[in-house]
Design brief:
alpha/beta, 385 residues, Rossmann fold, 7-stranded parallel beta sheet, 2 domains
Length: 385
Amino acid sequence: MSPRAGHAGTTPHTLAFVESPVQLLNVLEWAHVHALRGAEPADTDGPGGSSGAGMPGGSSGARGAGAGLTVVVLSPTDPMTRGQLRRMADLARDEGYQVRWEEARGGTTAPFHTIGGLAGKLRRADRIVMGDPFSRYVQLLLTITRAKDLVVVDDGTATMEFVSQLARGERLVRWHRKGGRPGARDLLFAPVSSSARRRLTPKGGRRVEVFSSMPMDRTPDGVTVTPNDFGWTRARFGPPRITKGADMVGTSLVETGVVDGERYLEAVQRLAKAHGATRYFAHRRESTEKLHRLAAQTGLEIVRPDLPLELIARRGPIGRTVLSFPSTVVHTLPLALAGTGVRVAVCDIDPGWLTETASPRAQGFLSGVTGTARDVHRLAAVGLG
């Protein structure tokens, strides 16, 4: 879906909502593919406009390259995520895009201030780009916009589930929560979620695009799928220096209640020993306590990346082999590192590692993540004693 004219003789304006560093990276990749370029007056609508007010360390993007695109950061509270988002926001400004930083979760009244401040821009926007269609925040914002163009950019493996649920006409539920009984908040929010699902279904002149590097086994009728090959990342960074050893990539499967913590620590220890890994790139959601234990038990150097791993790996140095459990990176790293000679190897999750509260779909979903990955070396699950 290429950029279309919004109002006669004007550049269509795009509003992108992101809540994680990876989502912002993929908005930049999407904008690169669609060549959003030109000049536009500065955004002065509300706090945190193009001047970077409310955004630490930001510049205004004086090159003026990002015509028609405003990135709205719905800032989370997690310090690691916020830090990576700050760095990604600086990169977006360097590309010339406008960035509006919203303290969307800064207290009980913050959502009302955020939604109220964005209402005008939402109604005027010709195109809405979102990184997380499961987000209640984003679903609520979708009830305000009149935009006919809706774009979902990758938020990792969740994108696969979103497309499948949309194709089946199911309610939008994150894969690791599916199978459980809806809570009181789920029931209260159900009308908004249903409205969002309808808005994300192509109908009545409404166009929906999914921009993704993930495999899609079933695409909803009328939805345009645009492949993300990380062309912006490869053009902007690297090629990296390759080291002789192996690096490991962490996962938040323990934090989301899918994998047992003790089993995970044992698996990391055995995998690192078997492949001579020396560094462990932590997922931004991994707990400090878990990482301290992991460092003590395995001797791995724990690295907390300040950018998404695709950019860290592309900048280098990076190991000749990158070890991972089933996660988004088994799909994205081979694309970001294409032509470098780095091998990505993925270790299956043994059913015995799953917690008692894990979703009934967890094992099948994780196997699907691994089985559909291209250009990776598949490792058998590590045997535990």
